[in-house]
Design goal:
- The structure holds two protein chains of two kinds.
- By secondary structure, chain A is mainly α.
- Chain A has one domain: Butyryl-CoA Dehydrogenase, subunit A, domain 3 (Up-down Bundle), CATH 1.20.140.
- Chain A has helices at 19-31, 39-52, 65-83, 90-100, 107-120, 125-136, 141-148, 152-174.
- The radius of gyration of chain A is 18 Å and the shape is globular.
- Chain A starts with 18 loop residues before the first helix and ends with a helix.
- The relative contact order of chain A is 0.13.
- Chain B is an alpha+beta fold.
- Chain B has one domain (34-184): OB fold (Dihydrolipoamide Acetyltransferase, E2P).
- Chain B has four helices and five strands; from the N terminus they run αααβββββα.
- In chain B, strands 3-2-1-4-5 form a five-stranded antiparallel sheet.
- The chains are: A mainly alpha, B alpha+beta.
- Chain B: Keywords: Membrane, Transmembrane, Transmembrane helix.
- Chain B: Residues 176-201 are annotated as: Disordered.
- Chain B: The chain crosses the membrane at residues 36-57.
- Chain B: Residues 189-201 have a biased composition (Acidic residues).
Chain lengths: 176, 201
């Protein structure tokens, strides 16, 4: 006989039922270039792939289930553009959101984010993927290499070229 | 191998990327459209794989452990607190956000083998993660309630219900001698996201 379950919230990572986790996955998808209008469809695809991963041997070795969902999201984002158009309005969407409501963040941070958003659109899909995993999901390089099944050197190379491109824009913004 | 310390500009970049991510993550949702198709696919996969996404994690040290693990069918059953076919009599919001109290009229108890005719279950709302798993009064479903309160129950209905029941029955004996891995047990460690953990870049 099942007991009456307690009312204490034991919220944690599960099949993307946690709102924070959902937002995190949507963020990785957007950073990876999925258009905002497609985020919910892409989110469903992430869930699908999470379920499919059950049929595969346990190959993955990073720290948290939430991070694993983000890794899958980064893969979905990288593949999204093969059959669909990629997002080309990230900067404009951010600017529109911040115009439509009172600013919650310092102007300096918003300017920086807008500059990076604009520059993100010029990166390749694979560069965006490693940027999202390194700077948003906060995975170390070795874990990114592990989950993407590529050499660490390749991750570093993609990161270096991506960061260089992003920094160049940041510096331009800073001296305006 | 030691990774270099992040440069100051990396922190700026991290801040910018996180701000973009925060905005994208909370961007307004659209109502079901193309997602419905993906949802149907999801439902199909739920059935095909007897779906439960299962995780393990290690927080104890530097030793790297697999954190995504495929549970066997026997383990899946061992990790379930309640499995039965029956009819949803009613659902009501629980005291806790995102949870619902399901009044369930049991027709075929599978785990435990015997059950009261009607039970009340306080569970994470399965409809939150999958519209196909939304529970409504009158639904005849197979309900698999995991031990962990923070995992949603798996819901099977329609033509998939019987095949899933047959699959469970096939592994019930084996499951009785199978231990649920610690992470999936009630009271198993709750995963905390590491905010801004930094192992170097």
């Amino acid at each position: 006989m099942p007991r009456q379950r307690s009312t204490k919230a034991q919220r944690g990572a599960s099949l993307l039922t946690d709102q924070q986790e959902v937002e995190r996955v949507r963020a990785v998808l957007a950073l990876g270039g999925v258009p905002w209008d497609d985020l919910d469809d892409a989110l469903q695809e992430v869930r699908l792939k999470l379920l499919q991963s059950r049929s595969k041997p346990a190959l993955e070795t990073i720290r948290s289930p939430g991070a694993w969902a983000s890794v899958i999201a980064s893969r979905v984002a990288a593949d999204w553009h093969r059959s669909r158009k990629r997002d080309i309005g990230l900067r404009e969407r951010l600017a529109a959101r911040w115009t439509a409501r009172p600013p919650e963040h310092p102007q300096e941070d918003r300017d920086l984010a807008l500059a990076v958003a604009e520059r993100l659109e010029l990166l390749t899909d694979l560069q965006r993927q490693v940027v999202a995993l390194r700077f948003y999901v906060d995975l170390p390089v070795r874990d990114i290499a592990l989950v993407l099944e590529i050499p660490e050197g390749t991750v570093k190379s993609r990161l270096n070229s991506a960061v260089a491109a992003l920094r160049s824009r940041m510096k331009v913004e800073e001296i305006r | 191998m030691t990774e270099k310390e992040p440069e100051p500009e990396d922190e700026d970049l991290r801040r910018a990327v996180n701000l973009i991510g925060k905005e994208a993550g909370t961007a307004p949702r659209k109502r079901l459209s193309g997602g419905v198709i993906a949802g149907l696919l999801l439902g199909a996969v739920l059935v095909t794989f007897g779906a439960l996404i299962l995780f393990t994690a290690d927080f104890g040290g530097d030793e790297r452990q697999p954190f995504v693990q495929s549970l066997s069918e026997a383990e899946n059953i061992a990790c379930s607190e309640f499995i039965a076919v029956g009819e949803v009599v009613s659902t009501a919001p629980s005291d806790v956000a995102d949870r619902i109290v399901v009044t369930f009229a049991v027709e075929v108890p599978l785990k435990p083998a015997a059950s009261q005719a009607t039970v009340k279950l306080d569970v994470l709302d399965p409809g939150l993660s999958d519209p196909q798993s939304d529970l409504r009064a009158g639904d005849r479903v197979l309900l698999e309630v995991p031990q962990r309160e923070d995992f949603p129950p798996a819901v099977y209905r329609g033509s998939y219900l019987d095949s899933r029941v047959a699959e469970i029955e096939r592994y019930l004996d084996e499951a009785s001698d199978t231990e649920c891995p610690p992470y999936f047990q009630e009271g198993g460690e709750t995963v905390e996201m590491e905010e801004n953990s930094n192992d170097g870049a």
